[in-house]
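Module 6 notes. Inverse folding takes a fixed backbone as the condition and produces residue identities as the prediction. Think of it as a translation problem where the source language is geometry and the target language is the twenty amino acids. Below is one complete input and output pair. Work through it position by position during the lab.
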């Protein structure tokens, strides 16, 4: 599903109308129809329902006026609250306001000096619809609009926002003061980016998207999408005559004295994804912590601190040569000797690789500049915001405030695939970007990143293209968490997701 900023949507709409020679009133009419259709499907019969609509001076307000008019055909009782001066109305808003007057729709001009009257009137509503600002807003609400938001916060009825809740930046999701906390946000034509990025995503409630009845012109359409279960259509086929060699031979370099569990989780996730064989290379000091299992274990020389030693280079090199996929980093230490070994191994490796955790610290600009572009396009990096900050000499706060921009810029610069973990996880190759729709706070626990790295590597081994391996891995990982149910998210541990992968990837 397409994801746009408000500015991008405006361009798409203008290009569409220009191509077809239609008036913008057509789009507004279609939007109103889709909104009313959603309300009817969600709340049932609308006869005699008191539906109160807060209307601003822009085209978002015009949508609200169309909704009020179309609600009359369902015998509902719409009431419109006009905010702002008549002189500020867009032409489309003015036109629909005139239609509303001719139909004797209940129209009230909001007097900010008598906000208690607004509170009393809105308390009579069965449903409140927010059409105050829309996608053009950024910054902080005026004192007047903030007072309206405060009123709405105290009224316990369903709230529907059109395109984006008032107070939420449609491009960044930032909220710099008050904002409407909606139960549902109806995204017109495409998902709005600010409704998918936090904190805006929290204010949007349940995000739904409705079409505008017209095909959006391809000109100006960004390659940015919300991940849903359709992505699993790219799962590599499983041929009936396949054997373990058919579905990928993975080599995982993982673990250290204090993080043996990371290696185990990563290896198990790779197997659960459907990989044929998984060879798990670990420092020899933790070798005896692993119970017999389907994993093939390879104990290797270690440093005094219990991490991989440079003395194991030749042994690792020999083990790697016949493998299809490399996963390196989960549970690894950032010991200098180990990071130099990582660099040496990556210079030798020409096939797809998943690079996670401490191994990311080996990826200096100087190092990346010496890796051919033809190889970098097969690299999948999976940093969390702190690791991403180290990669680009920034801060985790700055990364989280600019998740899309940071990820896209880095992936485009180096020509690789970046999985920026977090809420929400962003997957991009610098040209096409995906925003994940699955997962929750339950995944904010040690080891979930190790599971993800193994899952992505396993899908790579079965023949998935790197970008699709990354997107499917991220989606399935979050979906496995979701299957455990909201009531179990607080107590979720990383290994819980492993048992649910079979339900997602079947």
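Target side of the pair, the amino acids:
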């Amino acid at each position: 599903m397409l994801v746009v900023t408000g500015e991008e949507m405006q361009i798409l709409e203008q290009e569409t109308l220009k191509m077809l020679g239609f008036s913008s009133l057509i789009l507004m009419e279609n939007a109103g129809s889709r909104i009313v259709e959603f309300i009817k499907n969600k709340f049932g019969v609308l006869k005699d329902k008191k539906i109160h609509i807060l209307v601003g001076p822009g085209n978002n307000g015009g949508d609200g006026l169309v909704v009020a008019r179309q609600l009359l055909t369902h015998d509902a009782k719409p009431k419109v609250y006009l905010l702002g001066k008549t002189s500020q109305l867009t032409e489309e808003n003015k036109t629909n306001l005139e239609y509303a007057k001719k139909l004797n729709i209940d129209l009230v001009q909001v007097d900010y000096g008598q906000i208690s009257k607004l509170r009393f009137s809105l308390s009579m509503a069965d449903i409140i619809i927010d059409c105050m600002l829309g996608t053009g807003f950024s910054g902080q609400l005026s004192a007047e609009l903030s007072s309206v938001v405060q009123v709405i916060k105290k009224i316990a009825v369903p709230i529907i926002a059109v395109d984006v809740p008032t107070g939420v930046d449609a491009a960044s999701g930032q909220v710099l003061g008050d904002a409407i906390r909606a139960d549902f946000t109806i995204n017109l034509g495409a998902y709005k980016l600010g409704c998918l990025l936090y904190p805006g995503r929290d204010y949007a409630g349940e995000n739904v998207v409705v079409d505008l009845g017209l095909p959006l012109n391809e000109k100006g359409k960004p390659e940015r999408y919300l991940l849903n279960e359709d992505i699993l259509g790219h799962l590599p086929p499983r041929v009936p005559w396949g054997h373990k060699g058919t579905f990928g031979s993975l080599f995982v370099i993982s673990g250290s004295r204090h993080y043996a569990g990371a290696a185990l989780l990563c290896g198990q996730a790779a197997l659960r994804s459907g990989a044929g064989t998984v060879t798990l290379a670990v420092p020899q000091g933790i070798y005896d912590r692993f119970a017999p299992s389907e994993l093939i274990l390879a104990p290797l020389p270690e440093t005094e601190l219990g991490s991989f030693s440079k003395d194991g280079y030749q042994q690792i090199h020999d083990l790697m040569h016949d493998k299809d996929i490399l996963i390196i980093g989960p549970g690894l230490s950032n010991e200098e000797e180990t990071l130099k070994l990582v660099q040496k191994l990556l210079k030798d490796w020409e096939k797809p690789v998943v690079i996670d955790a401490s191994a990311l610290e080996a990826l200096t600009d100087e190092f990346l500049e010496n890796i051919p572009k033809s190889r970098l396009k097969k690299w999948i990096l999976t940093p969390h915001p702190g690791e991403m900050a180290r990669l680009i000499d920034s801060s985790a706060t700055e990364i989280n405030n600019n998740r899309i921009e940071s990820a896209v810029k880095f992936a485009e610069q180096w020509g690789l695939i970046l999985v920026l973990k977090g809420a929400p996880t962003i997957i991009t190759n610098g040209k096409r970007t995906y925003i994940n729709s699955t997962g929750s706070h339950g995944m904010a626990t040690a080891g979930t990143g190790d599971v993800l790295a193994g899952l992505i590597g396993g899908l790579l081994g079965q023949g998935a293209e790197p970008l699709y391996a990354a997107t499917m891995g991220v989606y399935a990982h979050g979906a496995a968490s979701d299957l455990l149910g909201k009531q179990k998210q607080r107590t979720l541990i990383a290994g819980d997701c492993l048992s649910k992968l079979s339900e997602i990837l079947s």
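Reference fact for the lab report: The mean pLDDT is 95.
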